[in-house]
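Priority: medium. Attachment 1 of 2:
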């Protein structure tokens, strides 16, 4: 009960900041990607789930990639460059495909460029879902509304992004309840590949909140799911966060 009250208080505090407009979000990230290395890395990490596709943000990331591709250096900040490549995929914009293909042909960056090429079509579908403000509830924070859009989309691969955000950061009750409903709707079915991974991340994310009210759901997943990965994560949640009282 105490943990639930703490989560509710955290959600209330996050809502006090008020909603940012779509234009304000774009302006923020357009500035952030020009910042110092820690600021830029944090901004690009966040673009993975913000639902932003505006070229004013991603053109700048593309210029950083092109500058490195056009150089002959074998050094540089490899982690930052690889992240820039992934960042381009978060745009969902096909206009960046030639740059990603150029990077894929460069042995220095081919691994992450190929991952970005594979992810690009997904973000073309997902960003309009994530950023759909017609579904947003003003009682929720902007980020809660983004996650709710993901969890209500009936897309387990998109749910993987939501599950990771819940696990690493966001544990507001409205989001946790939506994750629980998404798990209930999917755990009886057999999944594979990215869909199985998406369901597993939702289980892992919800379980990390450690709330007893969800224990019966994890027991049910552990006993009834046909997916080995889901069963394994549900058992880990029960052992780590919700052992028998």
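Attachment 2 of 2:
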């Amino acid at each position: 009960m105490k943990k639930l009250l703490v989560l509710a208080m955290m959600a209330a505090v996050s809502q006090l900041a008020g909603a940012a407009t779509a234009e304000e979000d774009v302006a923020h990230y357009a500035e952030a990607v020009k910042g110092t290395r820690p600021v830029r890395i944090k901004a690009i990490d966040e673009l993975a789930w913000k639902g932003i596709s505006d070229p004013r943000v991603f053109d700048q990331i593309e210029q950083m990639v092109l500058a490195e591709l056009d150089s002959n250096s074998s050094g540089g900040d490899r982690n930052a460059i690889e992240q820039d490549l992934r960042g381009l995929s978060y745009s969902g914009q096909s206009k960046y495909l030639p740059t990603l293909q150029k990077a894929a042909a460069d042995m220095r960056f081919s691994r992450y460029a190929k991952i970005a090429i594979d992810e690009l079509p997904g973000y073309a579908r997902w960003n309009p879902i994530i950023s759909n403000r017609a579904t947003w509830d003003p009682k929720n924070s902007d980020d809660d509304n983004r996650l709710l859009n993901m969890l209500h989309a009936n897309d387990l691969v998109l749910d993987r992004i939501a599950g990771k955000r819940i696990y690493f950061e966001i544990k507001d009750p409205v989001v946790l309840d939506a994750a629980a409903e998404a798990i209930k709707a999917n755990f009886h079915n057999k999944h594979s590949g990215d869909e199985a991974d998406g369901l597993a991340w939702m289980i892992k994310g919800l379980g990390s909140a450690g709330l007893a009210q969800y224990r019966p759901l994890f027991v049910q997943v552990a006993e009834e799911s046909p997916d080995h990965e889901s069963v394994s994560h549900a058992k880990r949640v029960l052992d780590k966060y919700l052992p028998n009282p």
